[in-house]
Write a structure and sequence with these properties.
Strands 1, 2, 3, 4, 5, 6 and 7 form a seven-stranded mixed β-sheet that branches. It contains six helices and seven strands; from the N terminus they run βαβααββαβββαα. The longest helix has 16 residues. The protein has about 200 residues and is an alpha/beta fold. It has a single domain, classed as Maf protein.
């Protein structure tokens, strides 16, 4: 697969989630190009009606790239609980409601798990990253990190469901970890590393 360059020296993050934008910007920092977001440019979010994380990521990157005429990177991520048939999954953001209240979403998850007899507490985060260029060329990859459900929520350094997720082999939740360390082991980091060889030649030289 050929590598693409960023001819306009700009890349748009297709998100209005400020926590997600901040995390992706840190991963993209070595690119040395101007990085903006759909939030900055007031580009509305498209309907995410895909059946997988990868489909939804591609919907967002394609939509924002067409709207701006610039290369766009999008992220579709969520948490899956084995005890809940891998819900909320691609609906992770929807569980937080229109106000994106993840405290409420985490309460919903806890209530659901409490109803399960002998829960395993197994869960995993998934992140699909998609880059789309204005000529419709795209690359989409995904990453995953496994862990255990933690209750009550712990930590204030992350966002979303980070306070209730302990990655396997670690005693701290994502929200308790130093952000730089979390970024090095997260599902987003796993997916981003897959993009390096395909999309970011300047990071692989």
């Amino acid at each position: 697969m050929k590598k693409k360059v960023f001819e306009e020296n700009k890349l748009i993050i297709a998100s209005h989630n400020l926590g997600k934008i901040k995390e992706i910007k840190k991963l993209l920092n070595p690119l040395n190009i101007e990085i903006l977001s759909a939030y900055d440019l007031k580009v509305k979010e498209p309907d995410e009606d895909g059946c997988t994380f990868e489909e939804n990521a591609l919907i967002k990157s394609t939509y924002v790239s067409k709207a701006t005429g610039l290369p766009c990177i999008s992220d579709d991520s969520g948490i899956c609980f084995a005890d809940l048939n891998n819900e909320p999954g691609i609906h992770s953001a929807r569980w937080a409601g229109k106000e994106k209240n993840f405290d409420l979403a985490m309460l919903k998850i806890n209530e659901a798990i409490q109803k399960i007899e002998k829960p395993s507490y197994d869960c995993h985060f998934v992140c699909a990253l998609s880059i789309c260029w204005p000529d419709n060329y795209d690359i989409t990859v995904s990453g995953r990190v496994d862990g255990k459900y933690c209750w009550p929520p712990k930590g204030d350094k992350g966002f979303g469901y980070d306070p209730i997720f302990k990655p396997l082999g670690h005693e701290l939740t994502f929200a308790e970890m130093i952000p730089k360390f979390k970024h090095s082991i997260s599902h987003r980091s796993v997916a981003f590393k897959k993009l390096i060889n395909l999309s970011f030649p300047s990071l692989n030289s």
